[in-house]
Amino acid sequence: MPHGHCQVCLGYFAISDCQVLPCGHGGCKYCLGQIFDTFTNMGNCWMCRQEYHRSGAHRVHLELVDSKVANFHNTIEGLEKMDASVPSISVTRASTRIKRTVDEINCDNEIAVSLRQAIADFDDRIVPVFIRVEAQAKDVEQLQKQLTCAQGKAKTFDDVCENSQKKDALIIALRSELDRSDKEGRQAVSVTESLTAAYLASKRQNELDTEEKKRLEHDNRDLRRLLECHAKSAQSRKDKIQALKHEITKLKQRNETLEETQSSVLDETLSTFPLNDYVDETFPSSSSSSARPTSPSEHFRNKSYRSSRLSQVTNELSESEVDVNFDFGMPGPGFSSDWKMSSTTKSKKRKAASLNFPIPLDKRGRPMVSVQTGPVRLRRVP
């Protein structure tokens, strides 16, 4: 059974009688028991001087085997793995190792019986191999003798012809093999060319796809910017419409206030103004029927009609819903129109307007004669 060496008393003890400290140093349990104090149960390692408690010392729970026994088991395992395919150098090493193991072994009869069985098995498997090798060596010697005789007979014409026929058959076989190799080579070249062409086509297609992807990404960025611009414009337009709605509401309130004020003033002043104050005497006309008197009620009725018309336009503007969807029907990026209104159309419209208008105007749209506007009783809405 293996023993441990105590570094304190320099004695040899069984593994069960040895203890090890946490630092790795150890010795027999008798020496370790003396380094710990009786009251504090503390002690210092005699090698590294580290302080430990008595409970830190523990046994070595290992099953150590004698090196001779381990060498014996390894030799047996190596012999069991040997067969006829093992080279001769391994056989020589195995023989040497077996001899060394037999010299070192000093054990009971059971191990000796196992060793004898392994050696007998080794002899049963290896000796026949050497016998076959010896027989093969004899066959080789006989073949060498036959070869010498054949070389002597090869000098004759028959041997030369026979050898030539064998060579012809070999040449035919080699030619067929060469043709087959050439055919396979051509097929390999064809496959390589087709694969190269496919690779180039795939590479070109990949480049085209990459360019198309870049172009689409560029177009996508442009469209996104355009969409953002349209969204900002729509939001701005909404804000303007909302501001206009508030402004119109204020104007309506002011207009209603003015109407109420003017109605009250009108009721108070109807009795004080004569009817002739509302006759347009200075309005130019070719006939006497064009100038007609205007009553105060008609005058303010027209005023009320204009106010109601303003309210109607305001309601239509407030009730209308502005469609800000610019995705449908919008032209693409870079669209421009070259259409222009011709000067003839403009002149025709201007002439038609001048003919239909009751007051003669000059080319700048200003009246050419004096115009009677009547009494100023209205306020313009800013």
UniProtKB/TrEMBL annotation:
Keyword match Hydrolase: no
Stretches assigned to coiled coil: 206-268
A GO molecular function held by the record: zinc ion binding
Keyword Lyase carried by entry: no
Biased composition (Polar residues): 305-314
Annotated segments matching region Disordered: 281-314, 335-382
Composition bias type Low complexity, residue spans: 284-297, 336-345
Name under which the protein is recorded: RING-type domain-containing protein
